[in-house]
Design goal:
Helices cover 74% and strands 1% of the residues. A hairpin with a 2-residue loop joins strand 1 and strand 2. Helix 2 packs across helix 3.
Length: 352
């Protein structure tokens, strides 16, 4: 009896500590948004000419009109908010992919989202469609068409098997990568624009892009969270889930489509940002466990924090020049991920 009571107390304490972590991560995300405003070639912290502006100028420009108001509010703030939203979207998408494919190497682009988006953008640049919203629309459309094609190929007799879906995604992604590389080869003077988009950037971000991305993130995150309990049951196997009353096929389609949309909206305005959707859910799962009711919001907040500071590095580490965000995330993410794999001595757990 005493053992059972102690076990119950342990479960309650673990649950409470995990919820506390969510609150801490949410507070850290808000603090990161505010603190990252101070970093840049113009401001109290950073290379270039920061000495011209004091901390007093910084706070005055945020709270009222000041010498930095235009830079902080109209230029720096929207890119910080978009970085936060994109990081959250990719992390949620990665958490879903890793859960349903039961594979720690699964990531948001595994179904060909990035390859389809790259083809869409390349077509738009070759056709001369380079307006503010034409590139994101073409990227989003290319990503969704690719995902639809993958689902169509993987569907057999009205059902979608996870391993078939994975193989179909790899095959389509490889084919579209070849197509996009050929278009890059044939692009001529537009080649630099395609390369810039493929590397990813938060430059010239607008509040319209922030609002669209945040809206899709909120709707997609809500849908995934509502199915978090069903996803937990599916970790024990689809057949077991069906015996426990979970419609595994329906849940799988809904959450995978939602995760693909989140990945598509992330690349639409920014370009391809790697490693975020791979390492953030992985780290959160290792730290807080596989319960998707905790994993999904924690991954969203952690992903937002991570990409905010990656963007700070992208716009400050080289002085007056901006490094593509995809390069920064690869430089920082890949070694850290290798370190985690080498230092972890136990197996990778999906369910407990």
């Amino acid at each position: 009896m005493t053992v059972a009571r102690e076990s119950t107390v342990d479960v309650v304490e673990k649950s409470r500590s995990r919820h506390i972590w969510i609150v801490i991560l949410f507070g850290g995300m808000l603090a990161s948004i505010f603190a990252s405003l101070a970093f840049g070639t113009v401001g109290p912290i950073g290379a270039g000419i920061p000495s011209r502006y004091s901390w007093a100028d910084f706070f005055n420009s945020i709270l009222a009109e000041g010498p930095l108001s235009n830079i902080l509010v109209n230029i720096r703030l929207p890119r910080i908010l978009l970085a936060c939203a994109v990081g959250a979207a990719l992390s949620i998408s990665g958490a879903v992919m890793q859960c349903l494919f039961r594979n720690p190497l699964a990531e948001p682009y595994i179904l060909g989202v990035s390859s389809g988006a790259a083809v869409g953008v390349s077509l738009g640049l070759i056709w001369g469609l380079t307006s503010l919203f034409s590139t994101p629309i073409l990227a989003f459309s290319g990503a969704l068409i690719t995902v639809a094609a993958v689902y169509g190929i993987a569907q057999v007799r009205g059902r979608i098997k996870t391993d078939t879906l994975l193989l179909a995604g790899v095959a389509i992604a490889s084919f579209l990568s070849a197509v996009s590389f050929y278009m890059l080869y044939a692009a001529g003077k537009d080649r630099d624009l395609i390369i810039s988009w493929i590397m990813g950037s938060f430059a010239l971000t607008t509040f319209d892009e922030v609002l669209i991305t945040t809206f899709v993130l909120a709707m997609g995150g809500l849908v995934v969270f509502l199915f978090a309990r069903d996803m937990n049951v599916m970790l024990m196997g689809e057949e077991t889930a069906k015996q426990l009353g979970v419609d595994a096929d329906t849940v799988k389609i809904i959450v995978l489509v939602t995760a693909s949309i989140l990945a598509a909206i992330a690349v639409a305005f920014v370009g391809i940002v790697g490693f975020v959707g791979l390492i953030i859910p992985h780290i959160v799962r290792m730290t807080l466990g596989p319960d998707n009711r905790i994993l999904i919001p924690a991954s969203a907040f952690a992903g937002g924090i991570f990409l905010i500071w990656m963007d700070v590095l992208a716009r400050t580490v080289a002085g007056g020049q901006e490094i593509p965000i995809g390069i920064i995330t690869a430089f920082c993410g890949a070694p850290f991920f290798i370190y985690l794999l080498r230092s972890r001595k136990t197996g990778y757990a999906y369910a407990s």
